[in-house]
Amino acid sequence: MGQLNLSVRSQRCAAAVQAYGAAIARVIKKKKGSAGGAHVVDLGTGSGLLAMMAATAGADSVVACDLHESLCNVARQVTQCDAACVR
Q1: Which residues are paired to 63 by β-bridges?
Q2: Is the pLDDT of residue 87 over 80?
Q3: Nearest to 55, CA basis, from 71, 38, 30
Q4: Domain residue ranges of the chain, discontinuous segments joined by +
Q5: Is the pLDDT of residue 1 over 50?
Q6: Strand partners, 62
Q7: Which end of the chain is more exposed for a tag (fewer CB within 10 A), N or C?
Q8: What does the pLDDT read at residue 10?
Q9: Are 20 and 50 contacting, i.e. CB atoms less than 8 angstroms apart?
Q10: In this predicted structure, which of 3-7, 14-18, 21-25, 47-51 has the lowest mean pLDDT?
């Protein structure tokens, strides 16, 4: 029963991440078309996931910051490990 709940929660989490990624991509595409560029600031970045999504979606620049230095370090490590998302 515990594993089933974890599986369902994982699927919901994956669906939410996909939805966020799609929404970020739509907004960046729209901004690039209407304003000529898309610049993103991710305040309270945590792991940096949304910042990486913005970079992957084609943002011209992405700045990610967090109040907690330990989370900034995590975001740096995550983006360094996923060099395909960092431009």
Answers
A1: 41
A2: no
A3: 38
A4: 2-85
A5: no
A6: 40
A7: N
A8: 84
A9: yes
A10: 3-7
Segment 17-29 mean pLDDT? 95
CATH superfamily of 2-85: Vaccinia Virus protein VP39 (3.40.50.150)
Burial category of 58 from C-beta neighbours within 10 Å (exposed 0-12, middle 13-18, buried 19 and up): middle
Is the predicted pLDDT of residue 58 greater than 50, yes or no?
A: yes
Residue 78 has which token pair? 């995550």
Half-sphere exposure of 80 (CA within 13 A, CB side): 6
Which spans in 1-87 are helix H? 2-34, 49-56, 69-81
Collapse the DSSP code of 65 into the 3-class scheme (helix H, G, I; strand E, B; otherwise coil) and give the result: strand
